[in-house]
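hi! just following up on the protien thing from before. the input was this:
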Amino acid sequence: MTTASAALALDFTVPVEKLAGDFQFTEGPLWVAAKNELLFSDIPADRIVRFKDGTCETFRTPSRNANGLTLDKQGRLIACEHGSRRVTRTAADGTITVLAERYEGKRLNSPNDVVVKSDGATFFTDPPFGVRREDRELDFQGVYRIAPDGKTLTLVARDFLKPNGLAFTPDEKILYINDTDRGHIRAFDVAGDGTLSNSRIFTANAPGADGMKVDTEGNVYCACRTGVMVFDRTGKDLGTFAMPEQPTNCAFGGADWKTLFITARPSLYRVRITVAGVKMLR
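and the predicted 3d structure came back as:
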């Protein structure tokens, strides 16, 4: 499918369906294909919620105010925790391992969103949303890479005001990172060792940019103030899935990966898409 036909295939008039509500502030939707379920964070409620078979239940509490969630190559849960200001990994037996909590001896701000590359490296953003100004130890808002060994932490970008959502292109050669305060999405070339280069503005039209995902055609879905905005691989605005509440993040899932789940502050929604999303590692 060409980019043009992919754009035509997306129907922005399809209404979104509300699945659940009465949460405090939802974030971090994650489809777990192996269990046919969706996990997402309710940050102030200090819990991770499981949505399965039309029902929501608590998956984990306390969650240390978890925000962004993803899976690693082994299917283990990776969580950005605002409360503890760290990134953790949960093994199948429930054992929690801290992957990152300090950079050059100073505590991180409040890890926000996270993605895992197919080589096992973990990239995450670290804005100050979950920490008081007087408690900050770093004087910048960075983007980091945790090496596949789960131990080596590297700063890969530090010139953001509020780095937030991030997502790889299907071939993982480009990493998109947005900046909430600037309302734009930047693109970086990704080297084999995980270093980023050739920073450029992918789109300057992403007001309130938050969580992002990418479909198999390379289209970028970004939760913004106006709804979930979709851009093609050149940065062209294809349209917006309008929302009754401001979205915070989104995730593809379902058996065919054509269901877009959307967290929107107090609620959880979904909408059917005609282009499949990029599958998780597991």
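The mean pLDDT is 95.
The domain at 3-272 is CATH 2.120.10.30 (Neuraminidase).
cheers
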